[in-house]
Amino acid sequence: MSGDECVPANQCGCTYEGKYYQHGQVFYPDALCQKECACNGTVQCKQSSCGLYEKCEMKNYVRSCQPLGKGVCSIYGDPHYNTFDNTTYDFQGTCTYVAAEGCHLSGTRLTDFTVAVENEKWYRMSDNPKVSVAKLVAVEVYGTIVILRRNEAGMVWVCH
Question: How does pLDDT run across 81-127, given as a tens digit for each residue?
């Protein structure tokens, strides 16, 4: 049994300090995330600590190291770039640019990623060849690339 579900014996969960954990679940039993435990038939624990840009907190009823915050940037229009520090730039280049990428991730649990934007000239509303728009946006994370194309609304390309 795993919780209230019948499963093969090698998929059974674990009980640790009176709490039940699913098979494969990683958990932090102390309030400072100084001990990381994993349930793989038996509970195995090791010393741990949250990374430089993380804090120990409860999320979905499970304590874990969570990012200190989130960053938001956006690209819109012809194109306007709003950066993580909320600065806006209007940039009319027609190349492929890295809009955002992970950096200084060593020693953290944060996942590396890249967001690239390919711009092209846009004549639709203007005869001004200096105006450009985003032709596509490519997001690479976890070894997968997801591509959004301007002229293909509602569709994404996924490359492994």
Answer: 999 899 999 888 888 999 999 988 877 777 899 999 999 888 776 66
DSSP string, the chain: -BTTB---GGG--EEETTEEE-TT-EE--STT--EEEEEESEEEEEE----TTEEEEEETTEEEEEES-----EEETTTEEE-TTS-EEE----SEEEEEE--S-TTS-PPPEEEEEEEEE--SS-S-TT-EEEEEEEEEETTEEEEEETTSTT-EEEE-
Backbone angles phi, psi at 53, to 5 degrees: -110, 30
pLDDT of residue 127: 67
